[in-house]
Amino acid sequence: MSDRVWGLLEPLLPGRKGSWGGKARDNRLFINAVFWILRTGAPWRDLPPDYGDWKNTHRRFCRWRDKGIWEKLLEQLVVDPDFEWLMIDATHIKVHPHASGARGGNQEMSPDKRGLNTKIHLAVDAHGMPVRILVTEGTRADCREACKLIEGIDAANLFGDRAYDTNEIVEAAQAAGMEVVIPPKKNRKEVREYKKHLYEFRHLVENAFLHLKRWRGIATRYAKNAASFVAAVQIRCIALWANIL
Fold this sequence. Notes:
By secondary structure, the chain is of the alpha/beta class. The chain contains 10 helices and 7 strands. The chain has helices at 3-9, 27-40, 54-66, 69-77, 146-150, 167-175, 196-199, 203-212, 216-219, 226-241, and strands spanning 85-95, 110-112, 115-124, 130-137, 157-159, 179-181, 220-221. Strands 1, 2, 3, 4, 5, 6 and 7 form a 7-stranded mixed sheet that branches. The chain is globular.
């Protein structure tokens, strides 16, 4: 992690100098350790000793996950997103066999002919920067999560592929004051017009998935706990907003 990026993150972290509560030991080393795990997709026990004890690092990662610290950190970094365009899409994530078998049953994963899958639902702004993340089982239809992705966001235009061409989504977007840039399905009885010249820019959300999956811990799900995988995606988005590509 560069000094510039650390200077951006340090004031937002718990345990920093001047904050209430106990002082955390070397937040920078801890953040670098978590980044290393997610970049490589390695098991926690393979964390190099230079980053500290793997058990303590994993426990701290889980504490921050359970307290919502990763989510809050991402919210603080998402500064002034450009909501001229709001783009939504989803992508499948292959689940590693070691991620199955959680206590109480598999979490947010479902089987298909290629094995277990998880799905990331993503909303990005006009620059392709992530602003909202949802994780579901792989067989969850994209359109069923769309309203959650756009809820409360004041955007001018909503972009999506044909999977999002449902009356519910179109009406929800229009009620929020968004112009719908979603191509109609071929079997739609009432053909709806959309701005084809704007739709060409929908590749920005695809690019966002490409950036997310550059880290092996995101491209393949290794976490049994769904909350841990959500935290991993949030951390990758933190890295993107901090300009760590």
